[in-house]
Request: fold
Amino acid sequence: LRLPKPLPRSFYARPTVEVARDLLGKIVSLGEASGRITEVEAYLGVGDEAAHSARGITDRTRVLFGPPGHAYIYLIYGMYDCLNFVTESDGIAGGVLIRAIEPIAGINRSADGPGKLTLALGITRAQNGADLTCGPITVHRDPRAKPFKIEVSKRIGITKSADLPLRFLIGRE
DNA sequence: AGTTCGATCGCCT
DNA sequence: GGCGATCGAACTG
Reply:
């Protein structure tokens, strides 16, 4: 599968929910490994108590407030790295958590969870802040993309702002 | 400086 | 369905 050029920064420089929905069906790639995004969650900058950015800029959340089209990668529960794509314009926080991918190439384990897909792709927080328009982590349109339905639900595993409909998945069947 | 607890996963019952 | 692993960020005092 030959991948088109990485998505441009303008793709990410939009409202977070819009970017989240549009990321479904796109392809994430790192080196030889790649997969199709099937599940995401939006984390908003303001009024979203579940977002890491809710308390303002800290050493950890700096990239969430920075320019769009970068990777925000953090350690969760002391053992897993989670991958997010930074959205909105520079200075405004927002990110999309990638929760599941469907393996395409170079993946030898399941990738149906935020901690599992980073292991599958070989992504760690050493790549925090990486520019998605340059690589090594890149995102692409799927040249063989077909239409699909989008399902919406509450986000998983959070306690604050827990009822917002900010989880998006490619519909079954 | 000490405590709490999380955007998870896999193994156990 | 429940829980332990494992650690750093953020909050308490």
